[in-house]
Amino acid sequence: MERIGVLLISYGSRGAAIADALKSSQNYDVHLYVVDKCNNPFNRKLADEHVVSRSLNVQDIVDFAVKHSEGIDFGIVGPEGPIISGVRNRVEAETDIPMICPRQEYALEGSKVQQRQIVEECCPELNPKYRVFDPWDYESIHEAKEDFWSWIDEIGLEVAVKPDKPATGKGVGVWGDHFNTRKGLLNHFLGLLEKGSVLVEEKVEGEEFSLQFFCDGHRILPTPAVRDYKRAFDEDKGPNTGGMGSYKSVGNILPFMSQSDYEEAVSKTEILFRKIAGGYNPGLIGVPFYMAFTISRDGLKLFEINSRPGDPEIQCLLPILKDDFVEICLRMIDGNLRSIEFENLATVTVYKVPPSYGGKNPTFQDEIKVNLRKAEDFSKLHRVKIYPGALEERDGKYYALKSRTVCAVGIGEDIEAARKIAYQCLDMIEDAGLWYRGDIASKRHIQSSILHIKKLRQGG
Question: Is residue 284, in this structure, part of any structural domain at all?
Fold first, then answer.
């Protein structure tokens, strides 16, 4: 087989899933060169060269790429931080390595305000009512408060308050979830305003789904829809997290969606792509559009745009990819990506996390040792993937860090079968205190979503 070297910028289980997809190539002898946020044991085993950069500093990545440039054919980036900081611009300027991720100037994830403004120009119906508050527009806190309350009196108390800059899903405050009083709402707003621009928009009631789009510069290709679980605890309680789990149904749509929902989401993203790209635009190669939509009583609304693969959403997709992932990467670089095929199966991803994660036990400080041996043995007999995230290897032993530790991805003929395998695998992981949400892709949660959408469509 032809040798091919790949530079992988990795953070968490998403990076492990990408590494797994690359190394699963049937057509290429893949050699991985990994810059990782931690000493991830999964990536370390697969890599020819593996280094840790705790901050994923762009200079560290560039130095590593330069050092190994003769063995690397292309690079791919998982996390948003380096993309927003311009890792592709720097690596391509200083080496001959083509990078699969948007260029810095097309990383829409860097500004929620910019997202709303661009969508307003081409698909305004996707935007909720919103307003941007800039701290430098006010001479005093009192003036900012008065302006804020003037807007709230116009739109109502049921709003979402978001920082302009990325906060990994944890900076957003929503009425009824994070605050229930005018004082709580104001405090959240002022706390964000101290740090920069704030986006305040009407709260959209509905059910969320996301689509991820692969791009070769000429065109975008959609993936099947995935549902993410942001809240820490069962029944969608607790603070937002990076994502406790996700699921994909058989086919392209989720049980609460219609085919027209999917087609509208694809067509509106196509309009957005043409607005940004013009004609051929290689600066958008990769996954420039991870589109989080909400089905509301007023139709489809856009929750947010991310400029990279989702975590845990991409874990639901890569294990059932029918095409060779290396071929997909090469076709994106060549501007010749015509199709992407997935197995007609369901997948369920569930994370196991440390006690302090999601505010469950914020005072927990002990180090947790993790043993994956039984889970790995289980995965040899069942269709399930184990992807370590914030899990670090030291002296041959594994230790949980402070973020999402490890996920299991169950694969099955339907959602329930995939869910069962994922949870069985998680229970095989030996640890002393890791926990998980128990209702990811549960029949009850899915049925609740179906009934909610039915009510909304009927005008309820």
Answer: yes
Angle between helices 141-155 and 182-193 (to 10 degrees): 130
In residues, how long is the chain? 460
**What is the distance between the alpha carbons of residues 19 and 353, in angstroms, rounded to a whole number?**
21
Query: What is the rounded distance in angstroms from the CA atom of residue 256 to the CA atom of residue 213?
Result: 21
Both 332 and 422 in a single domain? yes
Q: Strands 28-36, 2-10: parallel, antiparallel or unpaired by DSSP?
A: parallel
264-320 confidence digits (pLDDT tens) = 999 999 999 999 998 899 999 999 999 999 999 999 999 999 999 999 999 999 999
65 CB-contact burial (10 Å; exposed 0-12 / middle 13-18 / buried 19+) = buried
Query: Could you give the C-alpha distances from 117 to 130, 158, 208, 305, in angstroms and in order?
Result: 10, 22, 21, 12
Residues 225 and 152 in one domain: no
Residue 211 lies in a domain: yes
Domain around 241:
207-460
Residue 124 covered by a domain: no
DSSP state letters, 397-420:
EEEE-SS--EEEEEEESSHHHHHH
Residue with tokens 């991820």: 212
Looking at the structure, do residues 88 and 179 belong to the same domain, yes or no?
no
